[in-house]
Amino acid sequence: MTTATLAVGGSARRVLDAVWPPALFGVAFLVIWEGAVKVFDLKPYFLPPPSSIWAEFTGNLTLIRDAAWVSGANAFVGLLVGTVLGVAVSFLLMRFRLLNDMVTPLAIALNAVPIIVLVAVFNNMFSSTSEIPRRLMVTLVVYFIVLVNVAKGLRQVSPIHLELLRSYAATPVEVIRKARIPNAVPYLFTALKIAAPAAVITAFVAEYFGGPQNGLGSRIVSNIAASRNAVAWAYVVGACLLGLTFYLVSIAMENITTSRHHTSRGDDSRGSGPGGGTT
Amino acid sequence: MRSELVHPAVAVAGVSKVFNRGSANQVDALVDVDLVVAPGEFVSLIGPSGCGKSTLLRLIAHLIEPSSGNVLVNGKSASQARLDQEYGMAFQQAGLFDWRSVAKNVELPLELKGWDKKRRAARAREMLELVKLGDFVDHRPWQLSGGMQQRVAIARALAAHPPLLLMDEPFGALDEMTREHMQAELLRICDETRTSVVFVTHSIPEAVYLSDRVVVMSPRPGRITDVVDVDLGRDRDDDTREDDAFYRKIIEVREALRNGGHDTTVDHETVDPDAVGHPLLGVDDR
How far is A37 from chain B (nearest CA, A)? Predict the structure, then answer.
């Protein structure tokens, strides 16, 4: 109990210590931005001041929220489906070695390529009012990140653990349950930490390539086309907030499971181990 | 200990092991090895790197199959003995599962034997008290020191009360003081549980202090060159380490190692007197 209380008190202090420098920098940045627009008399079509962006943001809050809901739903559905598919296929790769040898190098290569360009092809495959191409794009991006990481976690089990389990006469299924799956759990959360922001970015950018005009990405494009720059920036603010939400939720999920299953120390070393793969 | 038991703990007869047979990098890891370990006996395998001592241990554990010859553990074939968990095993690395508590680590072999939860928990507590870690049941492995982790690994190896313990340099990564302490603990635990032990090491004092018999091995090809009986009695403590009889046994094992090298004076590497090292230091860790 005492150590827990101490840890909470200590972490609150640490959070505060970590938060004030970037917060101060952020405020200073906004002040300089506002000042620069005034002093150099920058035109609104070039760079609107933060004050008018904020005014448009609060004025259009309902519209921004609705658009964020659309983009967020696309990102979330893609994240969910991509994760489920990625985990499922990594189990197949673990089971079938030949498949693994064929698929894994390809997956790693695709992870390093901007596959988002495919969205134009997907748009062409479905009707212009469909959200499916965007969700498909997000799914694909997430799928490869999850696949590469989870497959690695399932495969890279300590040889000593495998020898011990053999000495206990463990069946192949027991080896998977007692060693491979628990070993892969931190790899899954590392993958989600990479995949969550990637999903949001993919959902926005996919909207730049056409389709229904209802998400944050398409609103940014259409408002810029209509020379309503401050409004476009207000949607950018909404996009940032949505991306941040996805990232924070993925970190919170990782923290909950790691505090239950793993050490913060082991987590750090794992954090740099798995990973890899952005869009 | 109990001579009325019929089966030896381990009976290795005419065992050879060849890796990569027929290829350019063929290795004769073991040639024609015979070894019998009596119930309750503590036997160490000692020799320089590449002498096949770990290979021999893995053959007894049925982690690998012999190329020829026969291995019996407690009267059963090695494969059947593994399926029946007739032995427990410990390595140089403790190999604990980070995502399990200390107690759940000790319970793992019992889970795989299909024991129910209550019985597992009771046995895990009993084993952890045996290795004097009763207060660390709910700790995570990474919260323990290296010596404590190794004690958890020993508790785990003994959890199913196997008649045989197979250990591959289990104290090799520990500092000297912890190492001596762990050796004394291991002797106490084996006496209490009447477990036979096959213990791989490359430290001469460690082999002499722990063993009833020290089996001296030699590389290229791996084989047994000598067996030294260590008649220092069963009650060994820190004073034993300063005893004249202890030193005489160390010198005997050291010379057996040196002679093992001389038997195969084909190349100069094996004859290099430095390879045997100081009598109080190991063969490999100078």
Answer: 55
